[in-house]
Design brief:
The complex is a heterodimer of chains A (379) and B (470). Chain A is α+β, with helices and mostly antiparallel strands and 379 residues long. Chain A has helices at residues 2-7, 56-60, 69-72, 80-95, 101-130, 134-154, 176-199, 202-208, 216-221, 226-231, 238-241, 267-290, 343-354, 360-370, 374-378, and strands at 16-20, 32-38, 41-48, 163-164, 167-168, 310-318, 321-329, 335-341. Chain A has a three-stranded antiparallel β-sheet. A three-stranded antiparallel β-sheet of chain A has the order 6-7-8. In chain A, strand 7 (321-329) and strand 8 form a beta hairpin. In chain A, helix 5 (101-130) packs antiparallel against helix 12 and helix 6 runs antiparallel to helix 7 (176-199). Chain A is globular and about 65 Å long. By secondary structure, chain B is an all-alpha fold. Chain B has two domains: 16-137, no CATH class; 140-457, no CATH class. Chain B has 17 helices and no strands. Chain B has helices spanning 2-5, 11-45, 48-62, 73-113, 129-139, 150-167, 185-206, 210-241, 246-251, 261-264, 268-282, 294-297, 307-332, 343-350, 359-387, 395-426, 429-459. Chain B is globular. The chains are: A alpha+beta (379), B mainly alpha (470). At the A-B interface, helix 5, helix 6, helix 7, helix 8 and helix 14 of A face helix 8, helix 12 and helix 16 of B.
């Protein structure tokens, strides 16, 4: 594999080959970039993925339908709720199950809170990669409150295992709604503070605006999804355009990158779209908590799940964009095939084509702005 | 289960906590107090003209007749050598301790800015963390990479340390408190700080690591570039004072803000800003921490260093903050000037030359030292704030800033100062007028800053100061 990548790198001139990772402070996990540089300027950066491969899809064929649910947490541990939801929805479609409305609403609330938490990590680490350490800890501080809230909801702070096939594991506890609303009130002021702290910092804007521009066409060609796609000016959000769960009942905006300080699709757009998305998520959570229906949180699911032979696909809008689970059943109690499509993997593909001409510092900004999470790339 | 998890605060625990607090306070104030008093006493007394009086006084105490002026030249030189060595030892210790305490202060300030607990384990408020860190680093394995250039790799930290230590020769602390008031003081300071970049470049090259090489090259480009605007900005106070000597530059300023060089020249503020930014760049501080940019170059030129060599780099990096701040205070912010105490007050308190000065003179020295240290700590704190607020600029932007903005700005300040000095020679009141106007402007800016800070605090529903973790 390594030789294969090295062959793709031209080694004739005075260029230096740099192993950017797998242990590097700004690769956000175990990813390697084989970087060819001429001084500070990149000739090419080739991502070398696979260091975190854990055969999750194969495990899905072995452990049975409900047993795979805790493993989905590990697909994307920064936003585990979405990985839960994607798998649950896929199996429900296989079983043709109707999920009770209260469970749908709880799913939306928990997912949007997780989206805020995940985006906080994303924008925080982005600021850290640009050299400002303080915003990252402010983001982590707010995320801590979300972790507390979700812990109150399902007992877990990182690998939630909250969504289950047919609903959610627990109903929300008493007074949880008030706690969430109190947090959101605080969070809206926090976002303004965060903007004053870092988003509109002159150095920060100059580091990110017009850097590593991905046009809308390129983004579609490379299969970029979620905030990365929207930052390039493509107005596409599964929650609005292919609604699932409780989302048709909510009103929310879909922020699109318009070149806030540079051109559409630059690093700053990818950053700022996430900031705007957090505000929208906050609105969704408020609406969901207001219109929360009563009733069961779990559908009647057979103890031994044995779907009819067939296949189902679920597409959900995760914090890192479109996440798809494709599950094939052969009529037994174990899936014949589980396939996870994750946003981070496709985002890695574009780095090789965008990187020529960037500087080393810009590569860091590009990786951070794509918000890749190493376990989601390799699964 | 819960019973074992809870650790009840027994009376003995709180007593020991009080003990830790007292010990920390005693040492935290005691060590700087001792060092400052040693500098206060030793730096005037180690001068040749007072050394004789001191030895005579000591002799009288012991009932002996000692008069160094009657001694052989060798003995006189030895006496002088010993006194200088003692002063040098004290100054080096001062540098190290200041560096350690700066680390503590920086970590406490940054943890406060970042809503985290920060140092709170070793001593009250974690004050002795820097001692613990230094001891830990001393005991670590001293690792030299197999492929490194052995001699250069080992030598590099000493260049850095020497470049740092030599600055204390010409660094003032008070009216008469300076190891050597060189007549080329500021020129000497600029020259010896250039040794630091030699060390960093050696470290980057000799480590035989690509990250270290990147860091070393960035550092060389950065420090060499920024010495030009820094040097030009330094020329502004030098022109205004008509001297390169640190003490003379301070003597030409006054105690009040409208007598400082930063304000007595309309372009002084620009010169100060150019100097401040260049110093940040030369000290590799954020937003110019490119040579050791953690998120890009792992640790830059420091990547391969461990153990005490690593500690030396950090000692210098944080100790340099004091040097940077002290030089800025000397050049632009009036140095140690005491209000209502001009040179004639000092001269009157001193008494006849050759004899030991009177108590009033020592009191004035203490006041001047306190004023100088307070100003220096204020500037140092500014540098800490900047570090934890701003992101890092890119390497090409760093060059742009230097050559497109700072160098022309510094040149403009230099030329303007030449013309301004001609004007001041004809109309001496111009300097005072500029000083008063700019002081008022600066005060207004400070008020606006404080009001905005207050408003920001209000916006996030009040500032939360949690002292329970101290």
């Amino acid at each position: 594999m390594e030789k294969l990548i090295l062959r793709r790198v031209d080694r004739s001139g005075e260029e230096m080959i740099l192993n950017f990772g797998p242990q590097h402070p700004s690769t956000h996990g175990v990813i390697n970039f084989i970087v060819e540089t001429d001084g500070e300027v990149l000739k090419k950066a080739v991502p070398d993925v696979g260091y975190l491969h854990r055969s999750l899809e194969k495990i899905g064929e072995i452990v049975g339908y409900p047993g795979f649910m805790p493993f989905t947490d590990r697909v994307d541990y920064v936003a585990a709720m979405f990985a839960n939801e994607g798998y649950a929805v896929a199996v429900e479609r296989l079983l043709k199950l109707e999920v009770p409305p209260r469970a749908q609403w709880l799913r939306a609330v928990s997912c949007e809170l997780t989206r805020i938490a995940s985006h906080l990590i994303s924008v925080g680490t982005m600021a850290m990669d640009i050299g400002a350490f303080t915003p990252m800890l402010h983001g982590v501080r707010e995320r801590e409150t979300i972790n507390d809230l979700i812990e109150a909801l399902c007992g877990s702070r990182l690998t939630y295992n909250y969504h289950r096939i047919g609903g959610v594991a627990f109903d929300m506890p008493e007074e949880w709604r008030d706690k969430v609303l109190r947090f959101l009130d605080h969070f809206d002021t926090f976002l303004q503070e965060f903007d004053r702290l870092i988003s509109f910092n002159e150095i920060y804007i100059r580091r990110l605006a017009n850097v590593a521009v991905i046009t809308g066409e390129q983004a579609i060609d490379y299969g970029l999804v979620g905030p990365n796609l929207r930052a390039s000016g493509v107005d596409w959000d599964l929650r609005r355009d292919m609604p699932y769960g409780a989302y048709p009942s909510f009103k929310f905006g879909v922020p699109v990158g318009k070149g806030f300080f540079g051109v559409s699709g630059d690093c700053f757009d990818r950053y700022y779209v996430r900031i705007l998305e957090m505000a929208e998520s906050s609105k969704i959570v408020r609406q969901a908590l207001e219109s929360m229906p009563d009733g069961e949180t779990m559908a009647k699911v057979p103890r031994n799940i044995k779907p009819e032979p067939g296949e189902a696909i679920s597409r959900i809008e995760s914090a890192r964009g479109e996440m798809a689970y494709y599950v094939v059943s052969d009529g037994t109690n174990k899936a014949y095939r589980v396939r996870v499509r994750a946003g981070s993997f496709t985002a890695m593909g574009i780095i090789e084509d965008i990187s020529p001409g960037l500087m080393v510092a810009d590569l860091v900004a590009l990786i951070a702005s794509l918000d890749v999470v190493a376990p989601e790339i390799d699964r | 289960m819960t019973a074992t998890l809870q650790s009840p605060r027994t009376p003995s625990r709180s007593r020991s906590a009080r003990g830790v607090l007292l010990a920390t306070l005693a040492l935290g104030f005691g060590i700087p107090f001792l060092l400052f008093s040693a500098i206060l006493v030793l730096s005037p007394l180690s001068k040749p003209e007072l050394l004789g009086a001191v030895v005579q006084g000591l002799g009288r105490l012991l009932g002996a007749e000692w008069d160094p002026s009657g001694w052989s030249v060798t003995a006189q030189l030895a006496l002088y050598g010993v006194s200088v060595a003692v002063l040098g030892f004290i100054l080096l210790n001062f540098g190290a301790v200041v560096s350690g305490m700066t680390v503590w202060w920086e970590m406490r300030v940054s943890s406060r800015m970042q809503s985290r607990v920060g140092y709170n384990r070793v001593g009250a408020g974690g004050f002795f963390q820097w001692v613990a860190d230094a001891v830990k680093l001393l005991f670590k394995e001293d690792l030299v990479p197999a492929d490194a250039d052995q001699i250069l790799f080992r030598a590099a930290p000493y260049f850095v340390l020497v470049g740092f230590a030599l600055t204390f020769v010409a660094l003032p602390f008070g009216e008469s408190l300076i190891a050597a008031d060189l007549n080329v003081g500021i020129f000497y300071l600029v020259s010896v700080t250039a040794l630091v970049v030699v060390g960093i470049l050696l470290a980057g090259w000799s480590s035989n690591s690509k990250w270290a090489l990147f860091g070393g090259m960035r550092s060389a480009a950065q420090v060499v570039s920024y010495e030009i605007p820094a040097g030009l900005a330094i020329l502004v106070p030098v022109l205004m004072a008509g001297s390169l000597s640190m003490q003379e530059i301070i003597r030409q300023q006054g105690a009040w803000p409208w007598q400082w060089f930063v304000f007595t020249n309309p372009i002084g503020v620009l010169a100060f800003l150019v100097f401040f930014v260049s110093q940040l760049a030369e000290g590799n501080r954020t937003p110019f921490d490119l040579p050791e940019a953690e998120s890009e170059l792992v640790a830059g030129y420091l990547s391969e260093y461990s153990s005490f060599r690593f500690a030396l780099y950090f000692l210098v990096e944080f100790g340099n903050l004091w040097v940077m701040a002290a030089v800025a205070v000397t050049l632009f912010l009036g140095g140690w000037q005491v209000p209502f105490a001009g040179p004639e007050v000092f001269a009157a308190a001193r008494g006849p030359a050759g004899a030991l000065p009177g108590l009033g003179w020592w009191g004035l020295q203490v006041v001047s030292m306190a004023i100088f240290s307070a100003k220096t700590l204020f500037v140092l704190n500014l540098i800490v704030w900047v570090r934890w607020t701003l992101p890092r600029i890119r390497v090409d932007q760093m060059m742009d800033l230097c050559w497109k903005y700072l160098v022309p700005g510094a040149f403009a300040a230099f030329v303007f100062t030449l013309l301004w000095q001609i004007l001041v020679a004809r109309v001496p009141r111009a300097a005072l007028a500029s000083g008063v106007v700019l002081t008022v402007v600066a005060a207004a800016v400070a008020v606006v800053f404080l009001r905005q800070t207050w408003r920001n605090i209000k916006l996030v529903a009040g500032d939360r100061v949690d002292l329970t973790n101290w």
